[in-house]
């Protein structure tokens, strides 16, 4: 362990210390770092872990109050429970549950963490605001002995030269840990906590296993508002006010030059290309949502929800807003498809293939639809959970890419999709009254719910190339229609369940389109099933519309190798 001086890009130096090649702040108690592996951690401890200036003090206060269950508890500094800052003797004999914290990598935490499996709350903040906050922190803390300029600090910080190393390495390491460890970890994004503090605080209380009334959760949220905490800590004897600066989302725009921003975006793409995180750099990404009426070419409207420029059906806005924070877990199976591609049909087939019996519980697909139903409705289902969604790749919960999940991806030719979607919208809760001739062009242009079919398909094809570790099984609607038993067999192999051909034949008969439509639980459920034919588009498309669509397809999908069938006629 040695004291080191690290220079920024302009030559200004910062005093830090090096332990086994890892850089720490120049903490007064070096013993805490030396003894880290042997620190005793209990199974009922709670650890708050984050890269510096991600909002750890803020989250610490929320966690502390939720566990204690009252607002008038003793004022305790997070620093006195920080593993690499404080000697173990200062918190060793505290009553359970103890709230500890660290900015270290998972592998640098005490050995007992992997053995006793305490609950870990992992906090992520967008790296641009984090960089600005880090700079202002080190400038104002005397022991860093740093007087450098922002321009010189930013580059050195993102290269990992300062304490705790590279932010990129830090978050990627934690994402890998979440894939492999059985230690319970709750991921919270700073921006979500800031913009929807009640929801995220409620999630936190549920993870902690403490029952707190909505009234108390609201009190905690109000007590821990950033400005309130900053004023409170200004008079505190245990916490410095300097740990709270602005706490805003998007303050980085007042610091980054255009050139710095472009450089940073290129660096992020280079470093994080294989790591999908739900990073938000501005509050607008969370707050812009409204019910809209989208006109077709004749002036008739489709009623939908506009969420940051993405069009959803007229679902509950709170559920749509919460998609990114859904806790996907290992073993989940997710059916993904653009609407009207046969999702209801394949849901039933998949459900029965998994269950291994025809009299399995008849659970409605809509109850586990990520953008349609609250997470509370399926969070306690036994694994493997069967979930489904129509959202585009970019709107999936980030944990989809970090967990061991299986994705069943369903494709259908876009002409039959267009016709089916038109008829579905005509029967919607707020019915669309327009004519087919006025619907087709706006649909193909991506103006209605879920946007462009072309973009959706291209994005999924890109994911297959860029995320080879994500298990994706592609089913074509037309193939299932042509030979359902063959496709059900392929599906069972992908799901890792052995089912006899006789059973799969029973499943396919039970799940024939006519049977499902006849047995739909309600008239509204029956509307999900119309004809289910391959090639019905020929009864709707005029010759001119067909020629226009074929030309559009060639323009949009020129670099896509997918081959769609528009008829089951072998002669075509």
Mean of residue pLDDT values: 88
Which residues form runs of ≥5 with pLDDT under 50? 233-242, 521-526
Largest sheet: spatial strand order: 5-4-6-7
Name of the CATH homologous superfamily of the largest domain: P-loop containing nucleotide triphosphate hydrolases
CA-CA gap between termini: 74 Å
Q: Which structural category do the helix and sheet elements fall into? A: alpha/beta
Count of separate structural domains? 2
Rg result: 27 Å
> How many beta strands in the DSSP annotation?
14
CATH class of the largest domain: Alpha Beta
How does CATH name the architecture of the largest domain?
3-Layer(aba) Sandwich
Strand content: 5-15%
Number of helices: 23
Question: What percent of residues adopt helix (DSSP H or I)?
Answer: 25-40%
Provide a descriptive summary of the structure in words.
The chain is an alpha/beta fold and 572 residues long. It folds into 2 domains: 27-259, Rossmann fold (3-Layer(aba) Sandwich), CATH 3.40.50; 320-413 and 449-535, Rossmann fold (3-Layer(aba) Sandwich), CATH 3.40.50. The chain is built from 23 helices and 14 strands. The strands form 4 sheets. A 4-stranded parallel beta sheet has the order 5-4-6-7, with helices on both faces. Strands 12-11-13-14 form a 4-stranded parallel beta sheet. The protein has a 3-stranded antiparallel beta sheet with strand order 1-2-3, with no helix packed on it. It is elongated and about 80 Å long.
